[in-house]
Amino acid sequence: MKGRIYCFRPSPVVYGISITGKRCELQCGHCSGKYLSAMDATETPESLMDAFVAAKEAGAKCVLISGGFTREGKLPISEFMEALREGKQKTGLKVEIHAGVISDKELAALGDVGIDALLLDVIGDQETITDYMGGSWHVKDYERILKTAKNWVPILTPHILIGVSNGKIKGEFHAIDMVAEGNIDSLALLTLMDEYGTPRLDEVEKVMQYAKDRVKKASLTLGCMRSRGKERLALEMLAIDMDFDGIANPTKESMEYAKSKGMIPVEIEDCCVFIPK
What CATH number has the domain bearing residue 34? Predict the structure, then answer.
């Protein structure tokens, strides 16, 4: 096994912004809105402009636009379009947005704004959406976005959270199938944090291997959200053994392991969405 593996370091160059503050209608068990607390809270177009400026002054080179989702599974972005355009033009920062299952009209608007990347959490099980997340959207909504989003946005990176349904493997394989059949640039795999019941390592390994086997025309990375406990190194070593293209915030130990396998770790200060071509 030889080649490069990209080591992404998003902090402090990626600046997180929540356009809903700490509010989220879904309140999923593995988050309950707590991850929004680490982001700059901007609930108006004016405060979003201020956040762009703050990001630039802090030395960021990219802003991640996110926030709480509605019951329809999307970020309420419509009123922020002009602020996104002006913020990007004023600061020159890259813009990636975690928008959910938005409409084609909203996708076109984001393309017109000039965003650089669209992130999409893909769930392959309807029961997880309806019962666990309390959402009213449908699995088929992902199929539409995965096939059409690049008509308007330059980079599309789906994310799959392994074990999203209370730590159980349910729709992950179907989610990978949808992603493999879509028009995407990369796929990031995530796992639940330890306190929420991450699936057994052997179960996660099966999902990772399935993604490696199915996703042939796009890059594959191990994303930021994953176990921080005893399985962290094991997950990273699995990604290395499977010849993943990159790992977000890898440990020093895993990079030494990559070197022992004949790979060259390449450090990149950026989000793993922006993987070199």
Answer: 3.20.20.70
Gap between the Cα atoms of 255 and 233, Å rounded: 10
Tokens at residue 99, please? 């928008």
What residues form DSSP beta bridges with 266?
6
For the record, the structure tokens of 263 come out as 């790979």
Tell which wins on pLDDT, 2 or 247: 247
**Residues 37-92: pLDDT tens digits?**
788 999 999 999 999 999 999 999 999 999 989 999 999 999 999 999 999 999 99
Look up residue 18 and give its amino acid: S
Q: In sequence order, what DSSP letters do the residues of 122-162 get, joined into one string? A: ----HHIIIIIS-----HHHHHHHHHHGGGT-S-EEEEEEE
Residue 65 falls inside a structural domain: yes
Rounded Cα–Cα distance for residues 24 and 2 (Å) = 44
User: Does residue 186 or residue 33 have the better pLDDT?
Assistant: 186
Instruction: Give me the sign of the Cα torsion angle 266, 245, 226, 67.
Output: positive
Q: 3-state DSSP helix/strand/coil percent for the chain, to nearest 5?
A: 40, 20, 40
Domain count, the chain: 1
Block residue for tokens 């997340």: 133
Given this model, what pLDDT does residue 1 score? 46
Question: Residue 274 domain-assigned?
Answer: no
Name the one residue in this structure whose structure tokens are 């493997």. 169
For residue 98, what are the β-bridge partners?
Answer: 119
pTM, two decimals, is 0.94
Q: How far apart are CA 158 and CA 176, in angstroms?
A: 10
Q: Output the pLDDT for position 252.
A: 96
